[in-house]
Here is the input.
Amino acid sequence: MVVAFLLLIWFAFCLPAQLFNSPYCTVVEDRDNQLLSATIAEDGQWRFPEIDEVPVKFEEAILLFEDEYFYKHLGVNPISLVKAFVANVKSGGVKRGGSTLTMQVIRLSRENRGRTFFEKFKELFLATRLEFGYSKKEILSLYASNAPFGGNVVGLEAASWRYYGRSPKLLSWGEMTTLAVLPNAPSLIYPGKNHELLLAKRNRLLDKLLVAKKIDETTCELAKLEPLPLKPYPLNQRAIHLLTHAVKEGKKGERLVTTLEMKMQDQVAQVLNNHYHKMVRNDVHNASVLVVEVETGNVLAYVGNSKTKNGGEVDMVTAPRSTGSILKPLLYAAMLDAGQILPKTLLADIPTQYSSYTPKNFDKRYDGAVAADNALIRSLNIPAVRMLKDYGVKRFHNKLKELNMSTLTKDADHYGLSLILGGAETTMNDLASIYGSMARTLNNYTKYNGQYNAKDYSTVNYNLAENETEEELTNSSTYTAASIYTTFNVMSDLHRPREERGWENFSSLRKVAWKTGTSFGHRDAWAVGVTPEYVVVAWVGNATGEGKSGLTGISAAAPLLFDVFKKLPKTTWFSTPYDEMEQIPVCTKSGMRSSMWCEKSDSVFVPLAGLKTKICAYHKWVHLDENEEYMVNNDCYPIDKMKRKSWFVLPPVWEWYYKTKDPNYKALPPFMVGCEEQQQNMEIIYPSNLKELSLAKNIDGTTGKLVFEVAHRNPETEVFWHIDEEYVNTTNHFHQIEVEPEIGQHILTIVDENGETITKNFSVIE
Here is the structure.
């Protein structure tokens, strides 16, 4: 009795909790379970993770070939065992196994231990126990997932992809019966080895299927005509960088069903390959594209790099790279929300220096004053830095944190004002998440009746199993729908300036909000594009960080971006969130809320926060003489003859640059003699004679530099230096510069922050 009880206990616990402990391949599939990429298992076997369902064709074939009574026995078939015993005794060796599929699963799980009577006896007990703990479908799945199929191929799925290059669900009867006979003698016959023997076994199985009425005669004959595979196929590697990313995220040895679409993945990869052949001519070797569905945040295409050499193994989707100008729209939207600007508010574009930081525009020129939307379209650096100064670095740093920008590992003071010009790093993942979240928020504004879903701001997703939509409605958001809409409208303006040559190549019927960026040293070329349906992020450069002259977002990344958009389905445009906007009069010249002095205004829809912005500060009343030639006042001119007129007046330094860009700008007329005392505040004190200057030689033989110095009544006043109308430097307190002009004639222009100007001609001689 005790022995029986102990045997019962042993029987209950004789199977391990996990039957198979072999390492598996990491497998990445698209949303329709098509294989994208796979890595070989740690033990060098192509062994895919276990399948849940066995294809009907394989089930019919393997049961007829190996175990006809599979659904009738309890793990052991006594009749088969007796027949096998008699046959083996007569032959004096092992000629027939008599094992059921259940017994074979046990033998495979025990790593094919010796085929002795004692081992066979243990298999009998374990197989019976397996039948009590698992369903027949589960046992069949275990067999199909772990049976050997020749060489280093294990499992039906791996065999199907290795020998036929497609999923087992898509195999014909001829292909499936070929695979069904392989586990019977995997070391003896497999594709490319003992071809005739394999063909004969396959055809016999087809005949058995015909006799069992599993297939008809026509199907049988056609299946016999199908050729056998001669060698293994290389497995798909359509998303190798996503595969590597999945492994790093702890999904090694798992099957990852992704959100990717095979067709789109292939199309984007082909577009990238076409651009690669153009890029390498300029010694640029790497590029990457990410396509995301706005509504769900699902990644549809993930091409991590262009090639697998010259740094091509680096996944640029997740690699931190300098942002360049790609964050400027985020600052523009933030300032709209803060009520600090309207879409066309004039911003200063003049030589600027904050402590030791001196930002420059890409073309090293200055407009004096530029509308905020135009500054964004043209990606001007100085207005962006000045906007960040006004908005606050810490405030913007916090905003980026709210947007889930994962690469901000330092505090705001570390980045400083360079944060807006590439002083920080970002990833393609982050950019797609941020711009996709903004688009999703704008799309859903009407859906939630003016409320916001906090879950709309989320990171992109590539795991189909994690594709869940959540709602957490609030009355506020990181960005309002109005500021997002206004920003995207500006970004959709394809009428780019001449500085961005080639923009006309991207004009089409498709409206896209897009922005480019170029990092310092031409190391990174960015482009991001947004529609209500898709976000596309493109990066071009060298994974090594090597910069290349001429590598810019507009010339390298934008063409790639728009070629990808051409492959996407038709897109629409965002609806206007009128509930969050107000139509107000805006001064046409200053872009600010109109004042009583503004000569002309436009009625413009602006975010509600725009009602907090200042009224126009650049129009004012001036008093002129009756001929409108001079400014006057009542101390020097009869009041009844004065003419009062509204005048658009910029700050002096703004004006000095602005009037060279806008021929219609009219500076204030001078004061009439006797109406205001004129006072000179600035004077050149060195050199005293500017007519002819020579470049002296230093002791070491090198050429020295020229020194210019001015004195100013107010030393703290900023002074801007130019030679031949090119900006050179800004000085404060100590107004002295060193320059090395070429031999010949030059013009020195000095302007203080109040607009007082000194212009002198000088020549440099040898």
Remarks:
- The longest helix spans residues 262-279.
- The chain has four domains: 2-225, 289-565, 584-661, 682-765.
- The chain has a mean pLDDT of 88.
